[in-house]
Automatic annotation (TrEMBL):
The chain crosses the membrane at residues 6-22. Keywords: Membrane, Transmembrane, Transmembrane helix. This is DUF4258 domain-containing protein.
Amino acid sequence: MKKFKFYLIGFIPGLILVFFILNKKGASCSGYLPNSRVIAETLSKEFKYSEEVKNAMAINKIDEKFIKDSIITQGKVDFDRSNAQQKPCPTYIITYPEKNPKYEIGFEKCEETMTVNSLKKLK
């Protein structure tokens, strides 16, 4: 029990110190989660749209900016329905917004490009 008390005496202040140092530097672990990594990699690629998606964009009055800035950036990757291990280009499904999704896109992420293959309005 004595060792445990000594451990806590050092651990708790150390944890608080690290928390405040990392918080001031703006560091966070959010970029390491699978959802964040897929989104960051996707946004760094050249975007292409299938003809089906271009038609759906026109019907639903959605532009490329909305797809990039809202659906992909703030969306949630559905890993259960995605095929992240597919070679050479994994496919993903993103729903937006996270709660009560209204849009769903399916895309293929290759080395140089990202091709949006489907766009659905859910509600």
